[in-house]
What we know:
It comes from Priestia megaterium. The chain is α/β, with parallel strands linked by helices. It has five helices and five strands; from the N terminus they run βαβαβαβαβα.
Amino acid sequence: MAKILLAEDEEVLRMLVVDTLEDEGHDVTEAENGEEALEFIKERDFDLIILDYMMPVFTGLEVIQQLKEMKDKRHTKVLMLSAKSQAADQSRVLEAGAAYFMSKPFSPLLLAERVEEILDEQ
Length: 122
């Protein structure tokens, strides 16, 4: 069982992803925005952080930038979800420090498979 943080401002999508990942046996913490995600990151350790690119308060990129400044958290794997799927957007995300990128819309089952692949790399 992995500890996963999901930061997604769309409630329906967040609920769908949480249900899917919990069905796979993972412990999922939910954040509605980037600020809440950072609070959880400071309090706990996660095996994987899944961030929405465009969130209120702090974007996914801003969360990654702050994560890189936390010495004990900077190596946490990050999967960025985004409706921005142009090559330039993907490059920006990967250059910022996310290890993985997934375009919206996506199948929750495909996301669960991707999460398993990422966790297996650790």
